[in-house]
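Structure ticket #2291
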Amino acid sequence: MMTYIALLRGINVGGHKKVPMAELRELLTNSGLQHVKTYIQSGNIIFQSSVNDTNFLTNQIQSLILNQFGFEVPVIIKSQQELRTIYNNCPFSEDRKVESYFVMLSKAPDQKLVDVASKKKYPNDDYVILNDCIYLHCEKGYGRSKFNLNFFEKKLNVNATARNYKTIVKLLSLSDI
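Resolution: structure written out below.
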């Protein structure tokens, strides 16, 4: 049995794409996923499955959400070990790490695209693209950053969703099933 963390993008934000967590947990449990837990309303799901194919699981969850709630939602799934590796590989010092955002990517982008995207710089924002994660530190806060997910998705040709340090730590804790 593998432990996974599914990260949904853009649900329950400003009254759009409403997905009640209790209904989502029940839906996923009824589909065969085990030990389904959610964390906060922004689409963080911890579950176990005997399926060892994240593409299959991603498509399954996307289809279930589309059929149940009537809209498409980007889903990025990481194994517990992958998320732990992402957390441990953060290139920032510990004091900057706790103020950072972890932008999960649906796949590791092509290096040529990374090279092009990495040329874009803004004062007070620092980021490093490593494999399938962007480590983003915004000196004045994420809400005031010039960077957004759309920029990275377009430049890197991937889906992306961001979580702050505290959420990553909590997801790792909750995934110790």
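Closing remark: The chain has a mean pLDDT of 94.
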